[in-house]
């Protein structure tokens, strides 16, 4: 009889991983399922990066490394922040490398949260933020953004969510699940509020930085320099370089926080995979030409979906400016029925869509807003064309 910890009792398994798993099982059982549930680029890791990993094995880079990254990778991360974001960090003391970006978020929360500490999480949010906060003993405070504001956090909504217990604000732009991008002006507006609350730290999750279409990426430590000393700027190799399985995340921030995270890493992961770290050095220092090409492919898929869904009865979609997700509202499908079954929630819609038309999407409830569905268009154009037809047919079939 396994008695679980109270900490584990506070969280649920990742719903996006759960839907992907269900889709995999249906596929394995011979069903023709199109899974648009996972946030994973469908491109291969670029050749020069994969080669650097292979070379690392050949060169014997297969032992333990420094807990928070080899100096070569920290140098490459510092150079990336300087080059892409105009941010200067000392690679020796202000940069950290972890086993994936998700673990850096976990490490930052684990290193700083005490019971009762609050973390402001704008909704719709990436599924893991609230649960990571809860796992680490903190309390997530959800700040609802509105579709009318393009799902962007506004200064008013932020101010209303802040209490004397607020320890962190988590920002994610481009956003998973909405694709909303915060402009430099948006960030300055939020910065004005944060400057009035000097104890609040900011975690800027910039993992989709390189996947933008009509908007320019900006990050808060650069847009509001007065905040830099309390911002953890987080990023990683997964999305930009199609390296989800390699597990490399990185970030930069104030020395005391980076020190605390190093201590935690030394007693948990020991170090990020040595081979992946050398591959990430090649990724960050190497040619980035492939990004433009891949972004064009994502843009074509997004545009295809937007044009098909414009005519799908019951769906309404805000045009995403970045990342590779579409977040259609499905209010028009709620209260309708299919085969005598009434769709009452977005979970009902997602379940019926998977069973009836074999398309796996994640219900908006998982991201803290309803009724929506999240569709990841990190899939081939052929799959996207077929899925969009099936989804439209599903909408038309409802009584
Ligand atoms: N942040 C956001 C918003 C994400 O969508 C993801 C992955 O889905 C991550 C962080 C974590 O990525 P990884 O742990 O692969 O670096």
TrEMBL record:
Organism of provenance: Parvularcula maris
Gene3D superfamilies listed in its UniProt record: Aspartate Aminotransferase, domain 1, Type I PLP-dependent aspartate aminotransferase-like (Major domain)
Family per similarity comment: Belongs to the class-I pyridoxal-phosphate-dependent aminotransferase family.
Cited InterPro entries: Aminotransferase_I/II_large, AspAT/PAT-like, NHTrfase_class1_PyrdxlP-BS, PyrdxlP-dep_Trfase, PyrdxlP-dep_Trfase_major, PyrdxlP-dep_Trfase_small
Residue ranges occupied by any Aminotransferase class I/classII large domain in the UniProt entry: 32-391
UniProt-listed Pfam families: Aminotran_1_2
Keywords from the UniProt entry: Aminotransferase, Pyridoxal phosphate, Transferase
Protein name: Aminotransferase
Enzyme Commission number(s) of this protein: 2.6.1.-
An annotated Gene Ontology molecular function: pyridoxal phosphate binding
Presence of keyword Transferase: yes
Top EC group: transferase
């Amino acid at each position: 009889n396994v008695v679980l910890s109270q900490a584990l009792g506070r969280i649920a398994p990742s719903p996006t991983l759960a839907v992907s798993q269900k889709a995999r099982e249906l596929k394995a059982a011979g069903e023709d399922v199109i899974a648009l549930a996972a946030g994973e680029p469908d491109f291969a890791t670029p050749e020069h990066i994969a080669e650097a990993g292979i070379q690392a094995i050949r060169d014997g880079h297969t032992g333990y490394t420094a807990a928070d990254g080899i100096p070569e990778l920290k140098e490459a991360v510092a150079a990336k922040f300087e080059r892409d974001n105009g941010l200067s960090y000392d690679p020796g003391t202000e940069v950290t490398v972890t086993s994936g970006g998700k673990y850096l978020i976990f490490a930052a929360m684990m290193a700083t949260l005490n019971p009762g500490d609050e973390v402001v999480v704008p909704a719709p949010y990436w599924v893991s933020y609230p649960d990571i906060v809860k796992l680490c003993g903190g309390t997530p405070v959800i700040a609802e953004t509105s579709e009318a504001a393009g799902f962007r956090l506004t200064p008013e909504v932020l101010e209303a969510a802040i209490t004397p217990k607020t320890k962190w604000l988590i920002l994610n732009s481009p956003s998973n699940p909405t694709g909303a991008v915060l402009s430099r002006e948006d960030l300055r507006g939020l910065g004005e509020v944060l400057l009035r609350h000097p104890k609040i730290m900011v975690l800027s999750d910039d993992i989709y930085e390189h996947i933008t279409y009509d908007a320019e990426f900006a990050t808060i430590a650069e847009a509001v320099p007065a905040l830099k000393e309390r911002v953890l700027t987080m990023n990683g190799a997964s999305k930009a370089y199609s390296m989800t399985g390699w597990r490399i995340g990185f970030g930069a921030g104030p020395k005391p926080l980076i020190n605390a995270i190093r201590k935690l890493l030394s007693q948990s992961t020991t170090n990020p995979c040595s081979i992946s770290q050398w591959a990430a050095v090649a990724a960050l220092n190497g040619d980035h030409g492939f990004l433009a090409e891949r972004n064009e492919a994502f843009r074509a898929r997004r545009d295809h979906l937007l044009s098909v869904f414009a005519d799908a009865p019951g769906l309404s979609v805000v045009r995403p400016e970045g990342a590779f997700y579409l977040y259609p509202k499905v209010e028009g499908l709620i209260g309708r029925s299919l085969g005598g079954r009434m769709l009452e929630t977005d979970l009902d819609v997602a379940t019926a869509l998977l069973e009836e038309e074999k398309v796996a999407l994640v219900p908006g409830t998982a991201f803290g807003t309803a009724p929506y569905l999240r569709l990841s268009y990190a899939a081939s154009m052929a799959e996207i064309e077929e899925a969009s037809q099936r989804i439209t047919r599903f909408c038309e079939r409802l009584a």
